[in-house]
TrEMBL record:
<dbReference type="InterPro" id="IPR011275">
    <property type="entry name" value="Malate_DH_type3"/>
</dbReference>
<feature type="binding site">
    <location>
        <position position="34"/>
    </location>
    <ligand>
        <name>NAD(+)</name>
    </ligand>
</feature>
<feature type="binding site">
    <location>
        <position position="152"/>
    </location>
    <ligand>
        <name>substrate</name>
    </ligand>
</feature>
<keyword id="KW-0560">Oxidoreductase</keyword>
<feature type="active site" description="Proton acceptor">
    <location>
        <position position="176"/>
    </location>
</feature>
<feature type="domain" description="Lactate/malate dehydrogenase C-terminal">
    <location>
        <begin position="148"/>
        <end position="302"/>
    </location>
</feature>
<keyword id="KW-0520">NAD</keyword>
<dbReference type="GO" id="GO:0006089">
    <property type="term" value="P:lactate metabolic process"/>
</dbReference>
<dbReference type="InterPro" id="IPR015955">
    <property type="entry name" value="Lactate_DH/Glyco_Ohase_4_C"/>
</dbReference>
<dbReference type="GO" id="GO:0030060">
    <property type="term" value="F:L-malate dehydrogenase (NAD+) activity"/>
</dbReference>
<dbReference type="InterPro" id="IPR001557">
    <property type="entry name" value="L-lactate/malate_DH"/>
</dbReference>
<feature type="binding site">
    <location>
        <position position="83"/>
    </location>
    <ligand>
        <name>substrate</name>
    </ligand>
</feature>
<feature type="domain" description="Lactate/malate dehydrogenase N-terminal">
    <location>
        <begin position="5"/>
        <end position="143"/>
    </location>
</feature>
<dbReference type="GO" id="GO:0004459">
    <property type="term" value="F:L-lactate dehydrogenase (NAD+) activity"/>
</dbReference>
<dbReference type="GO" id="GO:0006099">
    <property type="term" value="P:tricarboxylic acid cycle"/>
</dbReference>
<dbReference type="Pfam" id="PF02866">
    <property type="entry name" value="Ldh_1_C"/>
</dbReference>
<comment type="function">
    <text>Catalyzes the reversible oxidation of malate to oxaloacetate.</text>
</comment>
Amino acid sequence: MARNKIALIGSGMIGGTLAHLAGLKELGDIVLFDIAEGMPQGKGLDIAQSSSVEGFDARMTGVNDYAGIEGADVCIVTAGVARKPGMSRDDLLGINLKVMEQVGAGIKKYAPDAFVICITNPLDAMVWALQKFSGLPAGKVVGMAGVLDSARFTHFLAEEFNVSVEDVTSFVLGGHGDSMVPLARYSTVAGIPLPDLVKMGWTTKEKLEQIIQRTRDGGAEIVGLLKTGSAYYAPASSAILMAESYLKDKKRVLPCAAFLSGQYGVKDMYVGVPCVIGAGGVERIIEIELNKSEQKAFDASVGAVAGLCEACINIAPNLK
Ligand code: A3D
């Protein structure tokens, strides 16, 4: 059987890390695409030279022409600009929307059968625009955000409880970042929900609130420390998990920005919800019942995403 082909559209900090991880996991042959000449070629060559040391077989190719992504099974999109200190994700909207138009056209022409994972910010609006620009089926275009947000939540919870990250499951809904909705009652340590752990004295309500806020601000905390860009290791790991679930038909249940056509009462928008990712793309969207306060937080998150989509339509009326 021929190897899968994975196209990385944008070969910056996340793109390079994606290539390295996809190689280490032998997910397929990798094409790094970027508008910067020489950079995807250089990164591809560097990673390819690590393969003999690490012992993996994957062809790494760098290209500046969309023809190079032809026939890709998976496209992971990070093209655009990342945040600098003081910038919000939404400040990136105007610039990255134009980038999504080019990327969408490239995927439509050369990789119309691919499973597309968008990472470019502001995520929920960019994945929505990318699906429209590319014309691919909505179930084959998803946004990566929830896996990262829940990875951050899980990490902080494991630190608080001094237990293995493997025994913590966390559950987030809604838009990426500031408006995300962590669901404490569905987040567990070895199956024990967080509210029970508060009752058992493992932590306090106040500490839990602090952890939730730190999770919401997780991206900004790293931007503030790095000063020159945003997080890339954990975002890359998160997108690779989604790609692997698709390529291996693992049917993992992962929080993704998925196209909603009435689920949760939302239509024609991408919002973070739990999805089953398998060979069919987004095979199922899981609708859970929300209590009053969760519903209020979810509605606020949906409102924030709707505002971003409106801003996109003002710039590109053809998105309507
Ligand atoms: P960076 O290292 O700047 O890489 C972006 C790359 O895109 C650069 O190499 C550019 O040359 C390239 N690029 C710019 N315009 C185009 C174009 N028109 N066509 C093709 N390539 C182009 O950024 P990064 O890798 O750190 O981050 C990439 C994106 O991911 C940014 O928008 C971030 O805000 C976003 N991001 C999202 C998350 C989520 O959880 C959703 C997390 C972290 C970063």
